[in-house]
């Protein structure tokens, strides 16, 4: 394969990965579906309780993390194409079955929560490794950011598309239509995703600085060996607490806007959700690029400090301009985590076992949907305010910054050994 053909193939795999993630990001439609499911039957809803409508989403988050772990370990040995294909098929099939079972909380919990959730994890976890292998190590941050950015950007079109379908066809047909569309698009894109040839070595960029080139270390560490390193546990704690805070604000942004700014206009609240999704996407791309320039641990330090300041700031955000700044920072910081941590795993433990290694670390993200979000729900239900939650979250970010310091110290000691 000639150099220009290799570069072309690398771009095809990258674009296919971006658009695949864009196609399977149906989690971002759940808030719209949940609102309809809890609506009265007379209004086309199912009259579910909030807990019944929330269970499929909660299960999907857990199965997402499990699917990524399972798929990551398998694709390290077999390659990504058939796993990505299976992931896309599961996402579509789970939605189709959800539409067919209809008004059944248990049925939808199994079909969407388990089948679609596992499919998202399988696909999402298996599109990054091949793309990373096609590009030079100096581009790990930006490649990772672009891939996961596709998933974040899905919110921009999934929510309005789902709203239109619900208004015209009802819940069951909406789920089926989404499932069929995702099944077709994702499984077709999956055929473009594969690993480079065994002996393939990506060419170094012409402008690559000597210092950056020297800092790139090639290692291949197994998951078992990774679990023996202090670095892994520091990264796990940092990812868990940082992502938890991001998910807390993402899941409560409309409540925050209504309780602190007294905004009740649903159109404005919807705009805030979309705005947060866009900043989240830019955070994934720009954060990855930033980590390529200043280093992964330094990038994590920057967003950790920003997030600490932002959590304190949320106590005082009492107008739209201030809240917009807070949303930008939340989106940027949370998005950065999802591009920097995959690249950091490759830096520290190599590409050979990346799928399994990142899958284990990603379990921290699965747990992150429990820590700050549940704590915040309890505080809000008890006090009717978020102030105490913001203070606790600021304290959590202080722990992250300390862990970041220990991580940098450990990595520096390793590089000098």
Chart the SSEs and their pairings.
Elements: H1 3-24, H2 30-37, H3 50-78, H4 81-101, H5 105-134, H6 140-190, H7 210-215, H8 223-226, H9 230-260, H10 266-294, H11 296-314, H12 320-349, H13 354-368, H14 371-383, H15 387-416
Helix pairs in contact: 1-5, 1-6, 2-3, 2-6, 3-5, 3-13, 4-5, 4-6, 5-6, 6-10, 6-12, 9-10, 9-12, 9-13, 9-14, 9-15, 10-11, 10-12, 11-12, 11-15
* Helical proportion, percent range: over 70%
* First-to-last CA distance: 39 Å
Q: Beta-strand percentage? A: under 5%
State the secondary-structure class: mainly alpha
Mean pLDDT: 87
Helix and strand sequence: HHHHHHHHHHHHHHH
What shape does the CA trace take? globular
- Biggest beta sheet attributes: none
Total count of strands: 0
Cα radius of gyration in angstroms = 21 Å
Oligomer: single chain
Unreliable segments of 5+ consecutive residues: 211-215
Number of helices: 15
What can you tell me about this protein's structure?
This protein is mainly α. It is 81% helix and 0% strand. It has 15 helices and no strands. It has helices at residues 3-24, 30-37, 50-78, 81-101, 105-134, 140-190, 210-215, 223-226, 230-260, 266-294, 296-314, 320-349, 354-368, 371-383, 387-416.
